[in-house]
Amino acid sequence: MANMEELDGSTSNVIYITEEHRIEWTHEAAKELLKLYDEKCDMLDSGIISTQKKLWEFVSKDMNKKGYYYTGAQCENKWKTLKRTYRNKMDKIDKYGHKRPCPFENEITEILSKRPQESTFNRSFLSSKLGRLKKKDDFYYQMNLNDPPGFSDDGESQDIKNVKLVQNADTTDEDFLQNTEYVVQDSGSSQIVEEISELRKVVTKQNKVQSDILRQSNELNQKIVHYLDGATQRECQTLELEETRMEQQNEIIKQMKLQNNLLQKLLDKLG
DNA sequence: GCCTGAAAATGGTGGCGCGT
DNA sequence: ACGCGCCACCATTTTCAGGC
């Protein structure tokens, strides 16, 4: 590689640019990219990040903090390339059964398995799944590290451990980005992002468990309702049968009375 | 409230140049 | 031949402003 330009003063995480301004991705940088992308996707899912574009800006900023100087667009491109390479490899496995090592196969598999909508081209599904979770005007999120989202009732707490990521209609996305940057830097950088991500996972898990319980409860209730409906129906049928039986008995009694009358008249004539 | 068209967002793909 | 990084373009969906 001729005429390389070293952008980073440190000896590690060195990035080179060629005469044609082609950047190079080191193995470590790509691995970091996948890790950050996975994290940021979690934040996108939970609505902390509003769009994919912002996601790549955040990834880029975090990469910069770790000494990897790539733009959001470059990060996005790298992800696309990695995904394409991954798919090509998988296609070849399907077609020819043989396998050459695919870089970051495990990492990409994990990311795609968590987000199946990304593994195939299906925009409508993607949109319905992720959605634009919030309209820009509604964009108002609060994160509290002591309490997972939705579990805190003290939004005004001044506890320094707490972190708030807030954007309302009066703030621009850029303001929000900068404020978020400020808060995150002040509060311990990527560790907090990781904690948010972890907390989100816990909440998601709890929500899933709750959802499962509710679903099972609903199924049980439906069965009970179904059983009760059946019981009511059977009871109605029993009543109807009973009524019919009573009517038949009345009819029998009526006929017997007529018979008795006739017999009485016959006896009177005979004797 | 509904409709419409422009703009934005997003993922996929083809092609180019380069290196191996 | 193949892989990689990048760019440009396409198809589709969503958002949003404007008009009725």
Automatic annotation (TrEMBL):
Domain Myb/SANT-like DNA-binding as annotated: residue spans: 24-110
Coiled-coil spans in chain: 239-266
Gene3D superfamilies: Homeodomain-like
InterPro entries named among the record's database cross-references: Myb_DNA-bind_4
Organism listed in the record: Psylliodes chrysocephalus
Keywords: Coiled coil
Statement: the UniProt record of this protein carries the keyword Coiled coil: yes
Organism taxonomic ancestry: Eukaryota, Metazoa, Ecdysozoa, Arthropoda, Hexapoda
Record-given protein name: Myb/SANT-like DNA-binding domain-containing protein
